[in-house]
Structures are given as C-alpha cells and as structure tokens.
Amino acid sequence: MSFTAQPLAADKAEAYRDLAQQLTALIGDERDAIANAANTAALLFDLLPDLNWAGFYFLKDGELVLGPFQGKPACIRIAIGKGVCGAAAATRTSQVVADVHAFPGHIACDAASASELVVPLLHGDTLLGVLDLDSPVAGRFDDADRAGIEAVAAIWVKASA
Ligand code: SME
C-alpha cells in the first residue's frame, strides 16, 4: 500500500470532505478494526490543526477501554457516564465541549487539553466505543467539526464492524 496524506482545504466543510476521501482510500478494503482505528487516529492527528490527542476508546464489558491513538499516554479505562467520553457513550450523542475545565467530571489525561470533541461509534443500535479529539485551544471544535468527525466515525464503523 502506498498512501501520502494531502493537506486539507482551508474551508472546513471542504476539508472534512477531503479527509473522508483520504480516510476511505487509506482504509481501502481492510477490515481489521484495530489497524483501521490506528490509521484513522494517525490521519486525524496528522491533518487536523490544533490537536494534542486523537484516538479511540472501545466498549468492552460495559466500560470504555483505550484503543489506538496519537498523543500523550491516556487514561486506560473510563466508566460509562464519566467524563466527556463517558457522556458521549451514555447518551450516544456527540459531545462538543468548548472548555473542558467547565465540564463536570472531565477526566484530564493531558493537562494541555482545553477543548474536546467526542463522537459515539454506532453500528446500527450497537455502541462500539467513542472517537475522541482533544485540543489545546479553547473552543476549537464547532458543529462543522462534529459533523466531519461523525462522518469519519461512520467510515471506520462501515469498514471495520
Ligand atoms: N478527557 C476525556 C478522557 C480521555 S482523554 O482526553 C484522552 C474525558 O473526559 O472523557
């Protein structure tokens, strides 16, 4: 396989269309969930500006367990309902947190994190885990990021679940 990531467009919606195309090409017909998660985390971390962490938590035996990621070492297990990741898992809805320090129960893995976006990984009605992005910039994530990362999550689920 030969793959070289290309810089994203300046316009955010266009950038996420670029990112989705590149991720689809990168995954190809691979179906291994860990391999695809590892490459997804690497591509997000490489291409999206102002991130200090990007990665997966998988639902295992009723809790979230750390999966492939880029960034500093992170908390290994997160209970459903705890922190931003646990909230996304409990509600099965994306969480856009402009200021993590104002989020009740936020779990600080990297002190540099100021804002966070977590989207659930849903395969039909089944929750597989969450995809988590952290930024050192407050208010880094908006609704276009949410939609774009939900599309990324859907590509990973379709290929891997
Ligand atoms: N901050 C997250 C924990 C995971 S780390 O950011 C990688 C949370 O509150 O769920």
Automatic annotation (TrEMBL):
Residue stretches making up the GAF domain: 44-154
GO CC annotations on file: cytosol
Annotated signal sequence range: none
GO molecular function ontology, one term from the record: L-methionine-(R)-S-oxide reductase activity
Pfam families xref list: GAF_2
Gene3D superfamilies named among the record's database cross-references: 3.30.450.40
The family this protein is said to belong to: Belongs to the free Met sulfoxide reductase family.
Name of this chain's protein: GAF domain-containing protein
The organism's taxonomic lineage, starting at the top: Bacteria, Pseudomonadati, Pseudomonadota, Alphaproteobacteria, Sphingomonadales
